[in-house]
Design goal:
- By secondary structure, the chain is of the alpha/beta class.
- It has a single domain, classed as NAD(P)-binding Rossmann-like Domain (Rossmann fold, 3-Layer(aba) Sandwich), CATH 3.40.50.720.
- Helix content is 48%, strand content 15%.
- The protein has a 7-stranded parallel sheet, with helices on both faces.
- The longest helix has 22 residues.
- The N and C termini lie far apart (44 Å).
- The structure holds NADP nicotinamide-adenine-dinucleotide phosphate.
- NADP nicotinamide-adenine-dinucleotide phosphate (NAP) binds next to helix 1 and helix 6.
Length: 252
């Protein structure tokens, strides 16, 4: 069965991806939604009752969740036409003062889980399938006060580019998405509200637009999507300038 898998689907950008998969990929026969909060996933799925949606309550920071996902794949044997690795979180603050579990958890979710879900999914993908990995503008240069987060997203961007090259001969496209700030639950989880002048100054991206345009780009075979002209320009600057200089203004 032609299947789309979306992680971090219970709210925010993931919820918008669900709507866009339904709008832009009418061939998809089943959609798997992954997140920890089952009731959120089920409420969301009930809004699209005409569609075949399966809700998987998994804490992707827990290694056991990879085994559960592996078993689901073995039993259902889906044809994964789209994998959206969207689950992720950030935390604002200095590493030296931060909570160890929260910092290490970012690496677990943003890097380790994204890698595991991808590796487990690839055997179920055929020519024409796509992988959409949600990174961030924080991946363009190290970002003091979001040090671990920006490092995890640098991993996501590098992983996606290289994986895209590996999968090119198999006809599988990998797209990296780099949104700027979005008004989602992310800000609350990251404890950013009222604590970062940068976040208060920067223009925001709209999750609906990010989801719509990035999925459309993937379906056109493209490999990169950055929202808003300012952030496209920032990406170029980060390639041209030494990061020691960029960090003077990338600091959150
Ligand atoms: N918002 C921004 O400013 C911004 C900017 C650039 C990039 N991004 C990236 O965009 C992606 C989506 O974020 P968002 O803005 O939509 O934030 P969000 O509203 O907080 O959504 C995060 C999603 O990840 C899921 N999640 C969190 N921890 C999880 C875990 N341990 N296991 C499984 N699922 C987990 C959450 O569901 P549960 O809580 O139900 O598990 C939720 O569905 C993230 O990768 C983020 O890094 C966000």
């Amino acid at each position: 069965m032609k299947t789309a898998v979306i992680t971090g689907a219970s709210c925010g950008l993931g919820e918008e991806y669900l709507k866009q998969v339904i709008n832009q990929m009418p061939d998809v026969e089943e959609i798997w939604l992954v997140a920890r909060r089952l009731e959120k996933l089920e409420t969301l799925a009930s809004r699209f009752a005409k569609h075949r949606i399966r809700c998987l309550s998994l804490d992707l920071t827990d290694t056991e969740s990879f085994e559960v996902y592996r078993r689901e794949l073995e039993v259902s044997k889906p044809q994964i036409v789209l994998l959206i690795n969207n689950a992720g979180y950030g935390k604002l603050g200095l590493v030296a003062e931060a909570d160890c579990a929260e910092q290490a958890g970012m690496v677990d979710l943003n890097c380790r889980a994204l890698t595991a879900v991808t590796v487990l999914s690839i055997p179920y993908m055929e020519r024409g399938a796509g992988i959409l990995n949600v990174s961030s503008i924080a991946s363009f240069a190290p970002t003091p006060r979001m040090t671990v987060y920006s490092a995890t997203k640098a991993y996501v961007s590098a992983f996606s580019k290289s994986l895209g090259e590996e999968l090119r001969p198999r006809g599988i496209t990998v797209l990296t998405v780099c949104p700027g700030p979005m008004a989602t639950n992310f800000l609350e989880v990251a404890d950013i509200v009222g604590r970062s002048r940068t976040f208060e100054t920067l223009p925001y991206c709209y999750p609906e637009q990010v989801a719509k345009k990035s999925l459309a780009r993937l379906l056109r075979g493209k490999r990169w999507y950055t929202n808003r002209l300012l952030y496209k320009f920032y990406r170029v600057l980060c390639k041209l300038l030494p990061h020691s200089l960029v960090m003077k203004f990338s600091k959150t």
